[in-house]
Amino acid sequence: MDRSMEPPMRRSLPPLLLYLIGLSFAASGARADLAKDRADCIDARARGAARLAACTRLIGRDAASRAHRRRALFLRGNLLIARKKYAEAIADLDMAQKLGQNDASLFRRRGFAKAGLRRWQAAVDDYSEAIKRDAKFEWAYYARAFAYRRLRKFDLALADLDRAVALGPKRVRNLDDRGLLLLRLKRYDAAAADFSRILALRPRDA
Asked: Percent of the chain at pLDDT above 70?
């Protein structure tokens, strides 16, 4: 028989080379999965459940960097706040802080979660830290004033609402809350002035 007509014999690859090739494919797949989870976690257009799952996978990946895990914890904390899972959100935001996130947004969001649990003084502490880092964000003053009112620290609440109104003079919520607080403090003329400003902005406001 003419052996030139036989198919060439397959040479088996050395086991070590096969192992290295397998590792290479596995690493490539892991990188692709990591990149997809990152993209899905930060995509604000993604559906909530899918985004939450992506952030959770990213947090659990050994290959995720410290920065990626920190970002995913912050984003998952915000998603949990939207579901009113405040204790779980606080745990994520605490971990994000331990991993190095110390910006105003973290303290604002964690303060909101603590307020959701009626931990008013803890909320005030976080809002105060947020204000130290961003003194021109009027929502933080508004939110801290709300917590101060629950603590019956009305003078401090009024000072924060004054600042919120100064930063957002056309924001109805600031004027409305300040007007209601002024009513409580029996400062009727000042309250009426705030409600008049609201009517000027929204003439049909019931």
From this structure: 83
